[in-house]
Every structure is written in structure tokens, then in C-alpha cells.
Amino acid sequence: MATAPSAEQQPAFDVASPEQVATARAALDAHTVETVAWHFHESTGCPFWLEYAKSLPFNPLTDVRCFDDLKKFPPFEDEWLRGGPIRRWVPKGLADQPVYVFETGGTTGIPKSRYNSRDFRTDYEMFSETLPEEFFPKGANWLMLGPSGPRRLRLSIEHLAQYRGGICFCVDLDPRWVIKLIQKGWMEHLEAYKQHCIDQAITILEAGHEIRCMFTTPKLLEALALALEKKGTTIREAGITGIFSGGTEFTPQWTRFAVEELLDGAYLTPTYGNTLMGLAASRPVVAADGYTIAYYAPQPRAVIEVVDFDDPDAVVPYGETGRVRLTTLTKETFIPGFLERDEGERERPYAAYPWDGISGVRPFRKLAAATTVGVY
Amino acid sequence: MHLPAWRFGTPYESLERETLVHFLTGEPVAEVSQVGGGIVGRDLKKADRARAALLAIDPEEIVERLQTAGNLYANGTVTVGGEPQSPEQFVKCQSATTGLPESLCRANMQKNMFVLSNLDRILDALSRGLDPAILWAGYGVEQRGVTVSYQPQSPVLGLVLPSNSPGVHTLWLPVVALGIGLVMKPGSQEPWTPYRMAAAMVEAGIPPEAISLYPGATDVGAAVLGGCGRSMIFGSAKTVEQYRGNSRVQVHGPGFSKIILGDDCVDDWEQYLDVMAESVAINSGRGCINASAIYASRHTEAIADALAARLGPIEVRPPDDPEAKLAAFTIPGAAKAIWSQIEGLLEAAGVTHATAPFGERFVEGERCGWLRPVVARAASPEPEIVRAEYMFPFVTVVECPQERMLECIGPTLVGTAVTENEAFQRQMIDCTHIDRLNLGPIPTTKLDWLQPHEGNIIDFLYRSRALQVAAPVAATA
User: Fold this and answer.
1) Is residue A2 scored above 70 in pLDDT?
2) pTM of the model
């Protein structure tokens, strides 16, 4: 529960009131009960959870009465998401819907998969409401410069563009190949591949498609801005007014550099997301707030908690560091208490998103040494 | 103290900072701004200005200012991180974050000052007497009446500097005097030399816009190497392999320096014990020029035992003890891991550990570790330990017939050949895998600064090419 900060700790953003927080929490509790009821009811649930429920020492249909009751579930193991059959995750209540499969990881071995029917569209439609019209005008065309392939980004961005009345132009990037290039130390190939992507992006931007909005990754945004600067122009002069981007390398320093030196006035909104959770928007990133990047999950469909490294059921105090625990609560997917491979600081509820946020997201320290980040 | 990035003369305080701590106590010593590769990439688009700023000053004047800078660096109080820093404060800071004994920090300071103080002679030697005005103009006529032209291959030299070896900075010190700017990524634990040297240069009148300092993570190194037409990187054998064949990058890795005792001198090996001990152990054995192997066809057990008796008793001492000779490994677990590796190598057939009688080699500290000198003896060139090099006094005395030595030694940065056999000397002179050759009992660590080190820096930075100028058309009456 948020408490009012003292005068000397006054945050540089609009902290949610206790009433806003309580209302949002009540909505989350109600949504949790409804979602669990759907996933564990014989007529609507998916084969995986219906089977799993038999091993539980409690009855999810009767014993989950609020969000905190989800702690009764053992931790969700992401290994369960590797391999098939994918239909074991499709709820009976949605069995007639088209099935998409989105993958995460997969540079080596079997990737983790998440089944989707419409969730990605819903997530991006909700996210669309957070985009300022001034910089992301309705009807504007988009450039999607980033990973596609088995990831959901390409379809999601394209849907976002279409939902806002625009057309999406795409340049592909294969992150699995990028990770292999880094692991092999083939840095010249890495540079050449990046240049290959940037060349395509510039070709599209110069082809008269009236592109105003863009999704890309921090690394590619940096490369694109420098390439345009070399040609004597800028991101803004190339027509881009709004950029949405994501990744754990989205640090305050990088954002400050982008705002001060790369964007030429184009608006940048960072996001944090993955295949399991959906998309967390950030509160406005401003110099007065030290370029702090704080993300807020799309509650109640997904919840981010910042939990103690040794006790994942205990949320850390505001401002303290902890590991990211995700909960996904949609009709398509139920994932309770999944410990992410990221850590960060717990942030106070923001007026527009009156629930906990997280800032300083970075790879979880115990796993970071073995993780290749910032690859695209 | 906070060390900001330095973007061609403009200080830049990052929102991200790395705290450097004392290797023994863990107390904070300084904060260092951390920037990203994008800043480097963006700044390098203006690298031409660095060279232009230097070319606006007479080349001889530049040399004089660098000599002044050398004196300021070694003896003066200069402003580093917004605070005055005396030589003694510099030594304390450098020792605190690198684990190097203060006496060795002072020795490295003197080495750097020596290079800057003698820059005129060094440049004259490396350029084979070329008038520096020719490098400034791009072409000119030599004393022998021939037109020559030298074209810079980059307006700046990129430097990805190491954390653990302050001795390497001598390599880049002449660069500014060649009209080339500096783009440095300081070592994460040893920002001290680049920062103090840059401050001394600027105070001595070198244009600040000719120098950049970008502390940061590996993407900064990649941006420096990718964005500069010419760069130097200091790293491991893996780094060397990664950049092999890349003409834009000069890689400085392990040296695998060696002493070779010829059959005509080996019976007098005791005469060369001082040379051998100095080559192995000076500067805590950290340099690529420290010997990691000694080749002889006989007496190898006696040589190993005598060296062990000389080096084995060296103890770990506090960093401020004038007698301290051993640097700490400041990365937690590093010394222990290296010692485990060496223990494995010592178990191979034909290998003996000559320093074993002198007590434990691995010394564990609360936050760091040390390795006391190790002398091994190998009965043949086959065991893996013969090709090992570590960053502490470590050497293997290898028994090998003279006629097989050159095929067995492998890449050798400095080879000291103790022989008067002219035919063997000739073979050594022609041996392409020996870089620096010392004929006679000269320590591998004793460098003649008037000679090139791992390639001539001028040949790396400039291309000698043809340039012809049409004769002026004679005026008609």
C-alpha cells in the first residue's frame, strides 16, 4: 500500500492517492477471482491447469478470493513452457479461436512458447491509449525496426499501427543470430548486420511513405540516429515524431543521451515487456525525475511485483531492490508468480497507473554473467 | 572524487557512475562516470577537429609542451576530477584500485616521464630523422632532396586500455606529437594514468579538444575500435586472436617473452642469474615483456633451483611497504582460480615445481588474493606449462636441444639470446616470431625506447605514399 511521501522525499511525478490505489486493488482482486475461475473450471480451463489442479493441496475455484491468494500456488516454472503440445495451454473456452505461438529465447535449444489468440492485440490496444496524440498521431504510418520471426513484436506493432489507422512498414532483425555473432566474437559481422538493418530502415524512411511513428530497440535507434546524422539529417527531419522502444539497456543515462543528442525533439516512450506479460508502459521520462524510467504493468491483466531475492512472497519496501515477479491474468493465459530474469527498484504508484511500478530494470545479478543483453 | 567523461575537451557527468574501491578495505576511492558506445560514435564524427587543433600548433612546440606535461605528470600537482592531485595522491589512488605496490606505481610514473622527456629523440629515432613538419604538411622534401608524403590513417588513435598494467601507457604517449588526437577508454580499475596524463597535457598547453576519455562498459570499447581508423587494444590471447589481420587495430596481448641460453654460454648460467630474475619478477611480473620461459639444453634443474631460491622467498607485503614486490589480484577469486590452473599444469609428466620448498604460493586476502613467484622446470618443450604466461612472477625453465629451440619457442615478444654463436644469432635475427631481439644478457624487461615496440607507431598511424607536385610554369616576358 502506498504511503504519502514526506516533503523532502517529494517525488517528481504525480503519486497516486490512497483512494486510487485501493480502487485499483479491489479491481485486481475481482479480476483475479474471475480469471482463476475461468482457467480452473472444467468447461473453460486449459488441459495443463486442469491437470495441475489435481496436484494442488487447495481448490483454486473456492480458495482464491483475492490477488494475494495466488501465493498459494507454487512458483511458476518457465521450463513448463518449452516444447509441445502447445494446445495444452489453450483454454477450452477459447478452443475455436485461431492460435498463434510466440517464442522467447531460443538461441540454442528449445525456446519457450506462449500461446496467443487475441491477447497481443488487446495489450497493444490498451497501450495505444497511453500514446500522446501530438507525437503519435492517429492515421500516421509506422516503421517497425526490430525482431520479428517467431516473436510477437512484428504482429503487435503492425496491429498497433492498424488500430490507430496507419500502415506498418517492417525491417526484420534476427536476435538469435545477433547473439550468436556476439558469442562467436564476430564483431565485424555484427556491425555489418546492424548496418544492413539500418540501410533498409533509411531506404523506407526516404521512400515517401510518410512515416511518423516508429518502434525500435535502443541499439538500433542509436545506430539509425548516427547514420542519419552522417547524411546530414536527423530522426525528426526524417519525419519521425514519436518512438516507442524497449529493452533492459534502457537506462536513465541512455535515455538522457537519446533525448539530448539523438532525437532532435522526437518523443520517446520506453516500455518493458515480454511474451509472457505483455507490455508495461512507463510514466513520462523527464530530466526533473533524473530520467528515471519506471514501468507499470497493464493491471489487472498483468502484475509486476518487486520481491525479496530470498523470499519471493515478500514485496520489498519502496525504493529497495528486488527481483521481478510477474503474474499474467488473461482469459488466454494464467501465469501466477513467475520469477523473471530481471531485477529493479520498487516504485510508488503513479496517478495514471495506481499500482506498484519498477525502475532500473536490469538483468538479475545472479544470472547476468551468463546472459547476453543489449544485442539489438 | 568524481572522474567525468571527457568529450574532446568537454567534461561530461554521466547519470551512471562506477564506484572504485580500495582493494584491501573496500572503501570508496572514486566515482567514475560511465558512458555508452553511442556517445563515442557520435563524438567521433568530429574527430577531424582533434587533429586540426594539434596541427594549429608548431610540431616542435607540441613536443616541448609534452615534455612539460611529462614533468607535471611525474612531479606536479594537476587537476583531476576537479580536485588538485599530487604525485603521491596519484600513487595512492592507483595502488588502491589496482593492487599494485606503491613502489611499482612510482616506477611506472618514472617510465612514463622518461618517454615524454625524451620524446624528441624517440620521435627522431622512430621516424628515421623525418622532419615533423612533413607530417604536419602531409608532404615535403627530405634532406636528401626526395619528396616524401605521409598520410594519416586516422585523425585520432583509439585506445582500449587495460586495468592491470600501468606500464603500457608508454606506447601511446608519442601519439599527440605526431599530430594525432587521443580517444581513450580507460581501464575500469586504472583510470588514473589516462586521466592524470590528459590533465597534465592540457595544463601544459595541449589543446583539450584533441583528447577524449570515455569510461564505460564493453560497448564503449567496441565503439572506439569501430569508429577510429586506428586503435590499440590491450587484452588476452583471445582478444589478440579476435583482431588478428585487422589492419585498423594493433593488439597488445600476452608477450610470451623468453630467455634463450645458447650451448656456448649455458655452462656459465650462474653469471646470468640476475638477468633471469629481473626478467621474470620486475614490475610484479605483470608485463608482456616479463619472461615466462627460459630455454636451455642442460643445467635446467640447477637453473630452476637457483631462480627458485632467489624468487621463492618473496613475500606478500602491504602496498605502501617500499619492499613490496607483488601486486594483488583484485578480482575476487582470480588468484585462486589461476593457482588451481597452475597446480594442474605442475602435475604433468616431466614437470617439477622448484618453488615448492618456499611455502604456499597462493595467499588469500579478505577481498583479493596474491600469487607468490612460481618457478617450474620442464624436462622437454612438450608440457603445456611451457607455453603458459600469468600476470605475476611465473617462469618455466625448459630443457630443449639448441637446434629445436626456435621451432619450439612460439610467438615471443622479447627474446633475449645469451649466445655468442654467430650462426645461432643469425637464426635468431631471421626468426620472424621473435619481435624484439636482445643479443646478449639483457633483461627482457629492459627496453630501448628509441626502437619500435610491436611495430613502429608511425607506420601504424601514417601511410608512406607517393605525392608529386608539378613544376611551376615559367613566366613569359
Assistant:
1) no
2) 0.88
Q: Tell me: the pLDDT tens digits for A219-268?
A: 999 999 999 999 999 999 999 999 999 876 788 999 999 999 999 999 99
DSSP at A82? B
* Strand, helix or coil for residue A240: coil
Which of 3.40.190.10, 3.40.630.30, 3.40.50.12780, 3.30.420.310 is the CATH number of A21-368?
3.40.50.12780
Mean pLDDT across B293-316: 97
Give which of A233, A255, A253 is closest to A244, Cα–Cα: A255
| 3-class DSSP state of A175 | helix
CB contact under 8 A, B15 and A222: no
* DSSP string across A130-153: TS-TTTS-TT-EEEEEEE-TTSSH
- HEC string of B75-127 equals HCCEEECCEEECHHHHHHHHHHHHCCCHHHHHHHHHHHHHHHHCHHHHHHHHC
Phi-psi region of B392 (alpha: psi -120 to 50; beta: other; left: phi over 0): beta
Q: For residues A272 and A294, give the distance between their C-alpha atoms in angstroms, rounded to a whole number.
A: 9
The burial class, CB within 10 Å (0-12 / 13-18 / 19+), for A150 is middle
All cell numbers assigned to A317: 519496501
Q: Is B14 on the interface with A (CB under 8 A)?
A: yes
The whole-number pLDDT of residue A371 equals 44
- Chain B residues closer than 8 Å to A187 by CB: 222, 225-226, 242
Contact of B219 with chain A, judged by CB distance below 8 Å, is answered with: yes
As a whole number, the mean pLDDT across chain B is: 94
Return the C-alpha cell found at B426: 643469425
Query: Do the chains contact at A257 and B39, CB–CB below 8 Å?
Result: yes
Q: How far is CA B50 from CA A18, A195, B56, B203, B207, in A?
A: 57, 26, 10, 17, 8
pLDDT tens digits, A185-224: 888 898 899 999 999 999 999 999 999 999 999 999 999 9
Contact B54, B181 (CB under 8 A): yes
Instruction: Report how far residue A335's alpha carbon sits from residue A355's, in angstroms, rounded to the nearest whole number.
Output: 19
pLDDT tier for residue A374 given thresholds of 50, 70 and 90? very low
So where are chain A's domains? Answer: 21-368
Q: State residue A367 phi and psi, 5-degree precision.
A: -110, -15
- What domains appear along chain B, each with residue ranges and CATH number? 2-253+454-464 (3.40.605.10), 257-439 (3.40.309.10)
Grid cell, residue B322, equals 617500499
Task: Name the band, by pLDDT with cuts 50, 70 and 90, for residue A9.
Answer: low
In chain A, residues 160-189 whose CB comes closer than 8 Å to chain B: 185, 187-188
Note the pLDDT tens digit of each residue in B227-251: 999 999 988 878 778 787 888 999 8
Beta-bridged to residue A343, according to DSSP, are: A323, A362
d(Cα B265, Cα B287) in Å, to the nearest integer? 27
Tell me the pLDDT tens digit for each residue of A21-61.
999 999 999 999 999 999 999 999 999 999 999 999 999 99
